[in-house]
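ugh ok fine here u go
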Amino acid sequence: MSITAWLIVTSSIYIALLLRVLSNLIANAAIQCTPAGGYVTIILKRSNADAVIEVQDTGIGIASHEQKRIFDRFYRVNSDAYGGLRLRSRRTGGSGLGLAIATAIVQAHGGSIQVQSQVGKGSTFIVHLPLTGEPKQLTYLSTDEN
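structure:
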């Protein structure tokens, strides 16, 4: 495999993983937690040496006692606590893996993910990913003899 092909494959994998994070956060905000007429806003900005992605919604919000647990594998909120809105919950399904997977991907890229939320006002998921000013030096060993 040539260095160019390796870079394309590697870059495609990273991009696919980061798209998985974004699609999960957007799906949670837009589909599961924001009632009709609400809004989902996506913000991309730079803060020092980080790229920052914010997914904000005007949805139902997340109770403070659940905010740390939502990143745990298999944790699902109790939709009864939110007026029975159309959440994927213990009663309505969903695996409880989406935010855990998003967290693992972000951490594998050297970043962090957090939530700020108020019940009845909405949530903001904030992803920090490090930016590198210089491309990493790649060492490629070839067994080709040409």
